[in-house]
Specification:
Length: about 725
């Protein structure tokens, strides 16, 4: 299930000098700014020393046990190998103990349905690393669809990242002979990508280097601004420029819609994070920008143009509200028609989480108080759409749908899970949804990694400072039926609250095994800034209103205490990336609300975030520090600038990655250094050397990072 074709990873590649870190400032301005130099020997020595200190403090038999338990989960060979259909094959990427960096493989459906499918390995990343002396991390593959529906899928564009960075390389792979294509398309490491036009032509958007006038091929955010057409046999430098965004824009990418009978070419021009244009590139080379609001998200599929509105819009005489999904015949739209059909209208409890096309249907994924509801729509004559509620799907937990083959069938994969229930993969034919055989057919069931007997999930609501009801999920361990102040539990509260991303229930075996099974409670807060109630919920915590996300999180923490689930000395919090900014603000704004915090790959210096790696791309979310935004509101939620001497801060574990080229590791480094210099108390730091923004490149690294966090939390929250 998806919203609309989105932006690629929003990040920039660090350079040896520190990814643009301006180091010629006085020590008085920022005593720890030298830590922004990512690969500076002194900075790396600082990292190594702090890593040793953290391992000394948290290491031992318990850390080893936790690590082993997490490795068992991550490497289990009976996990569900999720697949995508390409022609007659079903493709999967798989990592386990024998394949730490993974194998890309495929099988046929009959084999896939077996308990132990017979897999045909195409690329072994570990073997590739051994042969090339590299540290590649898999970033995906884009297969070229044959012109003949019954033809063979012959080629793929494979993306590999050095060490897990967002920057990656592209190589052409022969799917028939299972080997790299000599003299095939190869893109050097950079932010960007390559997408197929046909067998001998691709779109490429990457760092082409400065032009003759010295202008960069990247935007100020570090993303590609030039789209080129690259023909087989040409050097990359000879590729033909088709589109150029301004350096002040966010990025530009291009793709071909290969749907048979509806082949079209598009340029996605992102002016800013929430401003974008979809431009059709017509066969004669003419570029046709779609006449839509810049804040709207547009998608073209077969005959239809879908538009999801972020703001109210009145193209003619009809006002369409923010959060609505509109549909119109695409050819009629290009001819001037604006008589949109409203497919979904949000209300106080409902928002559109995503959609999925099959051959004949459009399925809407609607969140109602953070619970999925699915509706199957079918376009009929004269713009009418029939509607049918898919009530056979579960009413609680996380449910996801994805088309098996949106050109050939109405079948979808159905993935169902919740906090306590292992994931099930099923298959459902939407054409049969109104018949007795409407229930999905189970295909695979993930194993249970912890005993959930006696555990339960509740949805609760807290009241924020301004009276807003904030939903949250609470997972209670076995034996917690009569929680009170006398039986309060060690509790971990997780949150994110940004970029219109929703936090919905999903099976979390690490939480179950390392926390719930040991007697802890777990809560997830659906605070403003996220997408749980659509654009309005996100917009409510943008820029100057960011404090509302923090107030929501504090309200959930207070509700957990007031209801007797936990106490401040037994409450821990966790968040990463934008969630790390959330945790940083909880540390500085509400230090007495909890006892421990895990702050992962965080943003923390909001005065310089826009000058570090991909930070400039997020100014639509946070604000511009070079304007009066800094004095008006940004400095009020810059954790690095709001640390104060003499405050009794909770215990903190900061984790990040040297190779994170999205959120600069300098944020976590400097926050740690400043708290240490202030003698802030129980503060620890661990920086993985690989892994990019995900923090880890393989299961061994993921297990170690997770074990460090769980060990830290158990020590600080006093669990037996």
């Amino acid at each position: 299930m998806r919203r609309f074709p989105g932006l690629p990873y929003l990040a920039e590649t660090p350079d040896a000098a520190g990814a643009g870190a301006d180091l010629d400032v006085t020590a008085e301005a920022d005593a720890h700014r030298w830590l922004e130099a990512i690969d500076d020997p002194a900075a790396l020595a600082w990292v190594e020393a702090h890593n040793r200190e953290t391992l000394d403090a948290l290491g031992g038999p318990e850390l080893d046990t936790l690590t082993a338990e997490l490795r068992e989960i991550l490497d289990a060979d009976d996990r569900i190998p999720f697949v995508v259909k390409r022609g007659e094959h079903y493709y999967n990427f798989w990592q386990d103990a024998d394949h730490p960096r993974g194998v890309w493989r495929r099988t046929h459906w009959a084999d896939y349905c077996q308990a132990r499918p017979a897999w045909e390995v195409l690329i072994d990343v570990d073997a590739l690393n051994a042969a090339e002396g590299e540290s590649w991390v898999w970033h995906g593959a884009h297969c070229l669809e044959p012109e003949d529906p019954s033809g063979t899928w012959e080629r793929a564009l494979v993306s590999l990242s050095p060490g897990g960075t967002d920057a990656d390389v592209t190589r052409e792979f022969d799917l028939v002979n299972k080997r790299w294509v000599e003299e095939g398309f190869q893109r050097p490491a950079a932010k960007g990508g390559v997408s197929w036009i046909d067998r001998d032509t691709v779109y490429v958007y990457t760092d082409f280097g400065a032009d003759a006038a010295g202008q960069s091929a990247l935007t100020s955010s570090g993303y590609p601004r030039c789209v080129k057409r690259w023909r087989r046999g040409q050097p990359l430098a000879a590729a033909e420029t088709l589109f150029e965004a301004a350096e002040s824009d966010l990025m530009a990418v291009a793709f071909r819609d290969h749907t048979r009978g509806f082949e079209r070419d598009f340029i996605h021009h992102a002016l800013a994070f929430y401003e974008q244009r979809l431009i059709e590139r017509l066969p004669d080379g003419t570029q046709l920008p779609l006449d839509l609001p810049l804040s709207a998200q547009a998608s073209v599929h077969r005959e239809w143009l879908l538009v999801l509105l972020r703001d109210d819009w009145m193209p003619e005489t009809t006002l369409y509200p923010s959060g609505a999904l509109l549909a119109i015949d695409y050819a009629a739209f290009k001819a001037g028609a604006r008589d949109f059909r409203v497919l979904f209208t949000p209300d106080a409890r409902r928002s559109l989480e995503g959609f999925e096309w099959t051959r004949h249907y459009l399925v809407l994924d609607i969140l109602e108080d953070v619970k999925h509801r699915f509706v199957r729509l079918e376009p009929r004559a004269e713009g009418e759409w029939s509607s049918f509620a898919l009530d056979a799907l579960p009413a609680t937990g996380e449910v996801g749908l994805s088309a098996v083959d949106d050109e050939a069938s109405d079948e979808v994969f159905v993935v169902v899970t919740d906090y306590l229930t292992p994931t099930t993969l099923s298959r459902l034919d939407l054409a049969q949804a109104e018949t007795a055989s409407a229930a999905p057919t189970p295909v695979k069931q993930a194993p249970a990694f912890f005993d959930a007997s006696g555990m339960r999930v509740e949805q609760r609501f807290a009241t924020s400072t301004d009276g807003t009801r904030v939903p949250y999920f609470l997972v209670l361990p076995a034996g917690a039926d009569d929680v009170s102040r006398e039986t309060a539990l060690p509790t971990l509260l997780y949150g994110y609250g940004g970029f219109e991303i929703s936090l919905t229930p999903h099976y979390a075996p690490d939480v179950g095994r390392c926390w719930l099974s040991r007697g802890g409670a777990y809560a997830v807060a659906n605070i403003r800034g996220g997408g749980e109630y659509g654009p309005r919920w996100h917009r409510a915590a943008l820029k100057a209103d960011r404090h509302k996300a923090f107030e929501d999180f504090a309200a959930v923490a207070a509700d957990l205490v007031a209801s007797g689930v936990t106490t401040p000395r037994q409450l821990g919090i966790q968040g990463g990336s934008n969630g790390g900014l959330l945790v940083g603000n909880m540390i500085t704004r509400y230090p007495d609300h909890f006892a421990a915090a895990v702050c992962e790959v965080p943003l923390l210096d909001m005065q310089r975030y826009h000058q570090l790696l991909a930070g400039a791309s997020w100014m639509a979310e946070y604000g511009d520090p070079d304007s009066d935004d800094w004095e008006r509101f940004l400095k009020d939620y810059s954790p690095y600038h709001n640390l104060r001497e003499g405050v009794d801060y909770p215990a903190v574990l900061f984790t990040t990655s040297t190779r994170d080229d999205r959120v600069h590791p300098g944020h976590a480094r400097k926050m740690m250094a400043k708290m240490e210099a202030m003698s802030a108390g129980d503060v620890h730091y661990y920086e993985n050397t690989e892994g990019g923004h995900g923090g880890a490149a393989d299961n061994a690294q993921r297990a170690r990072l997770g074990a460090l966090a769980w060990r830290f939390l158990w020590q600080r929250l006093g669990a037996s």
